[in-house]
Amino acid sequence: MNPSFLRHITPIVLTFNEAPNIARALGKLSWAHEIVVVDSGSTDGTLDILQRHAQVRTVHRAFDSHAAQWNFALTQTGINTDWVLAMDADYVLTDDLVAELSQLDPSPETLGYRMRFRYCIAGQPLRATLYPPVTTLFRRSRGRYLQDGHTQRLALAGQVLALQAPALHDDRKPLQRWLWAQNRYAALECDVLLSKPWRQLRLQDRLRSLIVITPWLVPLYCLTVGRGALDGWPGLYYALQRGVAEAVLSLRLLEARMNPNEIPR
Description:
By secondary structure, this protein is an alpha/beta fold. The protein has helices spanning about 20-25, 45-50, 65-75, 95-100, 175-195, 205-210, 215-225, 230-260; strands at about 10-15, 35-40, 55-60, 85-90, 90-95, 110-115, 115-120, 125, 135-140, 145-150, 150-155, 160, 165-170.
C-alpha cells in the first residue's frame, strides 16, 4: 500500500463565477501541494477567494467549450505529477474519499478512477439522483476530453476502476444562474439529438426526442424510484429542477422542428 499517494495528484478545477462554491471545494484539497484553477472570466469574487489559498495557481482562458477548457488545463506547464484530479467547482471531497485516495496503489494498467457522488440540494445530500459516476482521477498523459452535448467525456484507453467512498455534488449558486445554464445546455443537447440518426441515440435520448415524455417522466421517477419524496423540500426541488431541464430541452427541440432552417442557440 502507498499511504502517500496524494503527493502524486494535482487537482484541477474549472471556475466561472463560483463564489458560492469554490471555498468549500478548496477546503477539502488542503493536502495538495498545488491546485491548478482555470478561470474563464469570473467577476463575482471567485478570484479573491482563490488568492487566499497559497496552493492555488490560477490561469485564465476565455470559455469556448468544456472539452477545450479541460484539455487546456491538462497541458499546463508546471504540473509535475502523473495523476490529476479533475473537479468541477461544486465537487466537495468527503473525508472518507480523501483517505481512500491516500491509500491508492494503482498498477501500470490502471489509467483512472471513477468517482460516485451524493447530490446535495441546499447542502442536504439526497437519497438518490440521476447524477452519474464520473472519471475524475486519471493519468494526465493518457487522458483527453471530447465534447459530448452540453458536457465533456474523458477518453481513456485503458482500465478505469471505481472508488468506493463518494464525493458531494453541492452546487449552491442561485436559481437564476441555474436557469441560465440550462438554456445553454439545452441548445447544445438539441444540436446533438438532431444530428444523430435515431438508431444511434441512447434510450434516454430517444425518449427526449419524443418531446412530451421526459418533462413528466423524469420528475416522477425522481420522486418515486429515486425516493426524492422522502427527502422533503430538497427532494421536491431536485425533481422539479430535472423536470424543468427536460422541459427546456423539449422547447428547444420544438423550436428546431418549427424552424428547421435555423440553428437553435
